[in-house]
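Researcher: Hi, I'm a grad student and pretty new to this. My advisor asked me to get structures for two proteins we've been looking at. I'm not sure of the right format, so I'll just paste the first sequence and hope you can take it from there.
Model: That works fine. Here's the first sequence with its structure tokens right after it:
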Amino acid sequence: MSAKRKIEVFAAGCVACDETVAMVKRIACSSCDVEILDMHDPAVAAKAKSYGVRTVPAVAIDGRLAGCCTGTGPDETSLRAAGVGVPLP
């Protein structure tokens, strides 16, 4: 069996964050290991900073900030293009 794709959602409990969490959970597949991270935790905030997160919500895939999260925020099309919801062979 193939390894899983690690999906990290950085959120702070706002409506936009909740919508992103719901979207990622909806489109995730069996090859996705989704983890929701609370930005109120200093260790999580430090990790987010190391990824280049400047705003929340933000999504990292396999340790790299998703391209959609470097500017306008997460969107389903960009996350799918990055592999979220696409089973690994």
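Researcher: Oh nice, that was easy. Here's the second one.
Model: And its structure:
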Amino acid sequence: MKKSTKGALAAAAAGTLLLGGAGSLAYWTDSSTVSGTSITSGYLDLGDPVCTGGTLHDWQIDGGAAYDPLTMRLVPGDTLTKKCTITVNKAGTHFTNADFTVAQGATSGSAQLFGDELTLTAAYSKGATPLGSGSGTTTGVAVSNGDTVTVDLTIAWPYGAAADNTSNDLTGAGFQAALADITITAKQNHN
């Protein structure tokens, strides 16, 4: 083999060894540091509702007399109402609005009549200013820490609603039911 061929092969082999695992390539590297910061989250907390009346008689029937579940009986067309105030405790730089909703849990009792036929709605206000449409949900309510929101709850048994377990309205009577707790929820908006 010629010397020039042997030299070329030796140079190629040496280059292969350097590029493979036996050697390294030279390069520069550097880093820079960006300082961190402390982070504290805000919060949203609804205080316990304060409702008109006592614990047993804080619902009103047809907007008038206190409803006594021990002695009064509902008929189609009746409505029960309750007015409660809730204090909004909140903090957050970009938290100025909230959405409010109400929901009722499952109802128990004979044929679960009230769970199927009673409707729950809520109207909200701050001071004398009504908020939303009164459907049970209102969005974009401007809230500050310590604001008081009034919630007017209405449970209606629409006149003409048939008892679900019969085709004859007259036999749909004497049902007993326990209305489940009603949950008022506020959800923070980012603004």
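Researcher: Is there anything I should tell my advisor about the second?
Model: You could mention this: The CA atoms of residues 24 and 151 lie 73 Å apart.
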